[in-house]
Amino acid sequence: MDGTEIERIYAGICDGDKGVIAQAITLVEDRHDQADALLERLYPHTGRAHVIGITGPPGAGKSTLVNEIARIWVTQGLRVGIIAIDPSSPFSQGAVLGDRVRMRGVSGQQHVFIRSLANRGFLGGLSRSTADVVKILDGAGMDVIVIETVGVGQSEVAVCELAHTVVVVAVPNAGDAVQTLKAGLLEIADVFVVNKCDVIGAENTVRQLRQMLAIRRTPDMGDRPSRWDIPLLKTNALVPEGVTDVVRSVDEHRHYLRSSGLWETREARRVTNEVELLLREDVVPRFLDRARQSGLWDTLLPRVISRELSPLNMAHRLAEIPIIASSNADEKE
Ligand SMILES: Nc1nc2c(ncn2[C@@H]2O[C@H](COP(=O)(O)OP(=O)(O)O)[C@@H](O)[C@H]2O)c(=O)[nH]1
Ligand SMILES: [Mg+2]
Fold this sequence. Notes:
The chain has helices spanning about 5-15, 20-30, 35-40, 60-75, 95-100, 105, 125-140, 155-160, 175-180, 185-190, 200-215, 245-260, 260-295, 295-305, 310-320, and strands at about 50-55, 80-85, 110-120, 145-150, 165-170, 190-195, 230-235. By secondary structure, it is an alpha/beta fold. Helix 11 links the parallel strand 6 (about 190-195) and strand 7 (about 230-235). Helix 1 (about 5-15) packs across helix 3 and helix 4 (about 60-75) crosses helix 12 (about 245-260). The two termini are about 30 Å apart. Bound molecules: guanosine-5'-diphosphate and magnesium ion.
């Protein structure tokens, strides 16, 4: 794959060509060596889409709900990208297909693009590829991008940090509200949905959650002031019932972020998260490789063993090795 091929893929993405979008996603998922070049090309053309995280326990009805939400957006003329993160092992094709089938209602439509991503089981991998897929869908002109992820486990919750708006889906069940609280989902919710309201016990759960939301401490992050009252909505995604309220709340949240200037705050947080992630997952491993391959490593090592130098001293000396030789884009300016 060369520069012309990257240009072809880039142009295809900008045209919203579904086949090319799928190909580009495979490149970033596989961490193909040309993926970074493509993402560099694409990045200046991103930043338009409203990114929405939908999370909650397995089986809460997230996919069903996303399906119905997407249907409404399509009738409003919006282009919708959906990233479903498969919570099970990467080998479980069944779950991936299951999600695809469940979203059958919309996936065939011209204005909807759906992709399942396998959870590769490590933190950086999942967040990084999801962030990159968001860029591709954003560059392809999607107005809204939904990331569906199971709200259990650190990596899945971390994915929500990529979103401007986080929708937490809970279900009526004894103790469910407490589980939600434990998983830290209350802290990240911008919109709260109790799905399966046709099920017995729904009112009770709604009451419990209402109390919990009322006493929720406003986080110190400074970007969720009390001016945004977290809506607590009831849905039955099967009928569907209450879904238009979810769409309205998500839209209102976007307006709220835009008009209050908090959109920029969230963008800053998203970029900060991503850069920190890349420092850990990309820059440090590259640096370690370079340091090990340098002659300095072998020179210093015996001196540390003989107690002439400390390990910290060796680390600091190694840190003076240029980190990335190839990335000199800024130096030209
Ligand atoms: N009774 C009822 N069942 C629902 C509702 N929403 C989804 N389901 C069912 O719950 C199951 C899990 O739904 P799914 O969307 O796959 O949940 P996910 O794991 O959160 O994505 C499926 O069998 C759905 O048909 C609802 O509002 N009421
Ligand atoms: Mg699902």
